[in-house]
Amino acid sequence: YGTQGGTEVYLFSACCQTxxxxxxxxxxxxxxxxxxxxxxxxxxxxxxADFTRRLRVLRNLIEASSNELRLEKMPELLADVHSxxxxxxxxxxxxxxxxxxxxxxxxxxxxxxxxxxxxNLFHLEDHQLLRGCVAAFELDEAVFDKRxxxxxxxxxATECLPSLTGALLAIGxxxxxxxxxxxxxxxxxxxxxxxxxxxxxxxxxxxxxxxVLGHLLDVVASTEVDVGSILGKIQQDWLDAxxxxxxxxxxxxxxxYPAMRESRSGIYVGSNGLLGYSVCMLNKSQLNSWYRDPYxxxxxxESGVENSIEDPWFTGHETESRWMRLTKSGTELRCxxxxxxxxxxxxxxxxxxxxxxxxxxxxxxxGVLQVPQIESEG
Length: 378
Prior knowledge:
Elements: E1 2-4, E2 7-9, H1 11-18, E3 22-23, E4 26-27, H2 31-46, H3 51-63, H4 74-87, H5 98-113, H6 118-125, H7 144-156, H8 161-171, E5 176-177, E6 182-184, H9 192-199, H10 207-221, H11 227-242, H12 250-256, E7 267-270, E8 279-282, E9 291-292, H13 294-302, E10 324-325, E11 332-336, E12 339-343, H14 351-360, E13 368-370
Antiparallel strand pairs: 1-2, 3-4, 5-6, 6-7, 7-8, 8-9, 10-11, 11-12, 12-13
């Protein structure tokens, strides 16, 4: 038998009952089950050696190959299965996700030199977020065991996800750049983005998440304190250390204000292809859905007068202006790289008060409240 959606499925029985049937566009007996059944049949026919290990490798490849599992690729994929099950060979495997193939080779090398790591490696592979992909971990015998254990501890405390997003950012920019505009982070409320962050790229493209996550796992592994306290301390220590700094980078704001990390998708868009002070925080994965401006959203949440502000949701291209509007006066506010831009109220009865406040805070004639800046690391 195999698994489908976390449920045990008797492959031969399911094949006899549902092969060729469709539910919408999806096959009831899907390509993963078809490939696994073929692997079992090869094993039974040829009485192959080390089948449990080879089947695990195949499981890992299947989990990483959702884009590759399609009808026109089945001859190539079945040839790969034959090589893996009969010969135990990964050389020449071309149909499955190549990043995962490369990582399976690295894992084989690691275990050949350090067989004692097998139990913890397999346990880590079986984690629901990873499902065979450990490209976000250094395959270093000196740190692997303790980091694997810390990872299980970290993600067992799902109530700490909001603190986890802040602690990782306090350590460094752990995002994975999806393209020239989009950046993948974890989510404070949803586990799915964590799988996208940790597994949806090859090992070189996961270097940033791997370094930051490794640092955090070392901290978690080195103390018996509960996870929530560890994550809170990492954030507060970093904020305290930054208090005397001459400039506060974008990460400081994201750590300081949890509202800025509330993206359900974990995807952020930088207006100039960089993360900085003009950012969109996506609720879903596209800009044609409603999303937040994290800076405006933090102001909205921290203001204590949310009822006097129109709830700031936006849609459209990231380069479009995002104005947050005060309900009563119609005064508007938006965040730009230079600071905050104010738009005067349309009603003349509020103009005098608006002008007085602008003068009090040094807002220029262009309506810009300048935030003093310095250049740091480019």
